[in-house]
Amino acid sequence: MPNQLSLPSKKTYVLPIREAVDRHIRNKHPETHPDAFKADVDRWEALRVAAVEPRIHTDTASAIVQYHAQLVFALTKLPANLGLDVVYESAFASRPDPTSLPNLHFERCATLYNLAARYSQLAMAEDRSKPEGVKQANGYYQHAAGVLSFLVRDGLPKLQATVTADDHPADLSEPFVKALEWLMLAQAQECVWQRAVLDRMSNGVIARLAAQVSAYYGLALNTLSEAPSDIRHELPSGWLAHLETKQLHFDAASQYRQSINDLERNNYGSEIARLTAGRASAKKGYDVARRAGSGLAQAVLEDIKSLLDIVEKNLKRAERDNDLIYHEDVPPASALASIPPTSMVRLTVPTGLEDPKTALGKQQGLFAELLSWGARVAIELYEDRKATFIKEEVAGTSQSLDDAQNRVLRELNLPSAVDALDAPIGLPPSLLRKAEEVRVDQGPERIGQAFDDVQMLAERTQRILDDALDILDAEASEDEKVRLEHPERPPSHEANEELTRKAERYRAILQQAAESDSVVRERWDEWQDSIERLAWDEDKLEASVPATTGPTATGPAKAHARGVRALLEDLDDLSRARQQLVGRGRRRAEVDDIQPRIVKGAAGIEQWMEVQPGMFEDTIEEELVKYEKFRSDIVEGGKKQDEILERLRGRMKDFLASRSHEPAVKEREAALQELDLAYHKYNDITRHLDEGHQFYNDLSAILLRFQQTCKEWTASRRDELRGLTHGMRKLSVGASATPQPAAAPATPSRAPRRMPKTPAPPRVVPDTPAPSSAVPDTPAPPKIASPTFPTPPTATPQTPKKKFVLDLPPPDSDAWTTMDVPAPPPSAKAKGKKKRELA
């Protein structure tokens, strides 16, 4: 019977790796055909199959290390959210409930856990009745502990950063993994203690080794006891009792060995005190083991019972001798010197984890020729910031200056005031150009069509949001119908809180957009007649503007008018220069390609380093500097514009004071001013309609993704409900085990969720061997069982002919922490039974 624990492997499923990679390359690397990486995908799939092979051998551990190394390299090329739904069952749950997360960090963490599990299984497969088996098991346990520590240090932080707390698997939580790490160290230290017992080392040394075993078991127990209940419940029944029993067992064993040391030194009172303390720990451990029932290995119960018997026997003997012969005072337990624990084990992290390059040797990493994900994001980031800079800092600044100029000209009634004076009949050339632009564009028809398009897009966007909410409402109705049957299930209004909050935000955005559309519509209603006049043919438009006859201006008025006209021409020159700068900036952005520089920079980064977009921040800033001159030139032109506008105000003041005040002139001036304003309103309305068109298109894409998320969430709730219903049905007919899955379900949702227990996709199930026995610190020698494999070999027990004399290194020797871990034999059989040494 085993008296140690091995970690079961996490069971996994065949993943749609090829589909996910092809989709990513098509979307993010359009310049590359997915077939270019067909060989890489084939290697990925083959490596994963080898990594989940159930055979208990160091070759499979090496395969897992190699697969992990390739995952690390692949994560320098691919994003964690590749879109690949990674599915694993809980390692310990008695009724497996697969977890699906579209996250490659989940795959990496599960792989690391399975590597630790494999090392623990290798340790359990060793024959610890032999010195070499004890040494090998010790090394494997230290490797398992090292892998778990590496998982906590390097794997879990990246997983925690990319999934929500609700989606994080409980068996990959930090407290859970840390507790398993302490457990592996405890069992490694127990192997050291076992060799010390077999080698008949001094009782003081054995006591210190046992104290450390107890301390490690205590750390594992305390870590789990302080963890949330859902994490503790991941463990099978009996594991917590196993840890507590072992902690108390080795505490009692430590006191017992130290009592023998006191007896040898004639400290009879201390001997009795330590035996009393040992009996208390052993009795408490025995009570814990008995209450655990079938959840605890029989060997552990027998070990603690044997120790309790021998401690009680020695305590009776010691008390009798002291009463009759020695008459020493028995000190209280608090007065006893503590037994200093001595650790002979350490966290051994395989070299292939710390330095993945060594695991691959001369093999090429997966997707080595693919531009890394970080570099691709850096390129996209540059393109986005470049477009934003052109739009806001270049074109936006230019538009702001145009708007400021137009406001001043409208205030001064320009150029209509001088046009009415300079051209008493006909239309000014500037107005003819503006009217021609509107006429060629078919301005009124264009605006009418744009309003229809924006309205259609707004209604479509609203329908998408309504459909998404209908999906949530339908699920809520379904939930209400089953609340009585499954009250433990979170109600819909709690489970979909994040989705409904997003929906309300989208609804508010749509309401604001509708209000903006109404403002633009009102502006069109106000200026529609004037804009339609601009679209008239030239003769009709000219006839609509009043003409003046006779002298219209004095000499001074004409002089001031010429000055105003000159300033207006200067403003036109500045405006055209700004438009040219905007055009040049846009043309430069169209041909600008930062990819060669990013690719070169990425090639210079350490090959195995995960490339992050932030690494190229300096490069992006340097490349954006070349667009700064467009903005600075526009800003400089703005300063000149301010000077001209200020001079224009003075000129207009003189002009207005000197011009004729005939009513006909004023009437013509007002008509020209209205047409000029209509032109500016036309541009303003069309710009807002174009922006509205783009806004609704962008929002529709966002809402379609939101709608899909609602569908996936609803599907996961229905899957969960089916799983609960199926489980209840199985319980009602007395089913005690989950049947093997028969067929693969539909491709799991990309949204993180708990998947139903049935049906499940075809899976690769690593077998977990039954652990082998160790030598406990007890006098009664129960039988040592052979390890159990999927196909158990035939063992022929034989009695050893001589006692082992082991060459155990001293406690401070490096030999315990530098053991090689060679491959075990094809099968670990117990060649015979070895009578255990007395504690």
Describe the structure.
The protein has 839 residues and is mainly alpha-helical. Among the domains are: 8-200 and 346-369 and 774-778 and 814-839, alix/aip1 like domains (Serine Threonine Protein Phosphatase 5, Tetratricopeptide repeat, Alpha Horseshoe), CATH 1.25.40.280; 236-340, Up-down Bundle (Methane Monooxygenase Hydroxylase, Chain G, domain 1); 372-411 and 567-661, Four Helix Bundle (Hemerythrin (Met), subunit A); 721-754, no CATH class. The chain is 64% helix and 1% strand. The protein is built from 25 helices and 5 strands. The protein has helices at residues 17-28, 38-51, 58-74, 104-124, 131-162, 174-198, 203-225, 229-232, 239-264, 268-292, 298-326, 351-354, 356-360, 373-411, 416-422, 429-440, 443-482, 492-495, 497-534, 538-543, 555-591, 595-604, 617-624, 628-658, 663-732; strands spanning 12-13, 86-88, 99-101, 753-754, 763-764. The strands form 2 sheets. It has a 3-stranded antiparallel beta sheet. The longest helix is centred in the last third of the chain and has 70 residues, at 663-732. The protein is elongated, with a radius of gyration of 41 Å. The relative contact order is 0.13. Mean pLDDT is 82; it is low at 733-839.
| Silhouette | elongated
Roughly how many Å is the radius of gyration? 41 Å
| Largest sheet data | 3 strands, antiparallel
- In CATH terms, what is the architecture of one domain? Alpha Horseshoe
The topology string of helices and strands comes to EHHHEEHHHHHHHHHHHHHHHHHHHHHHEE
Parts with pLDDT < 50 across at least 5 consecutive residues: 733-839
In CATH, the homologous superfamily of one domain goes by the name alix/aip1 like domains
The percent range for helix content is: 55-70%
Number of strands: 5
| CATH fold-type name of one domain | Serine Threonine Protein Phosphatase 5, Tetratricopeptide repeat
What is the overall number of helices? 25
CATH class of one domain: Mainly Alpha
- Which structural category do the helix and sheet elements fall into? mainly alpha
Q: Tell me the strand order in the biggest sheet.
A: 2-3-4
Compute the separation of the termini in Å. 19 Å
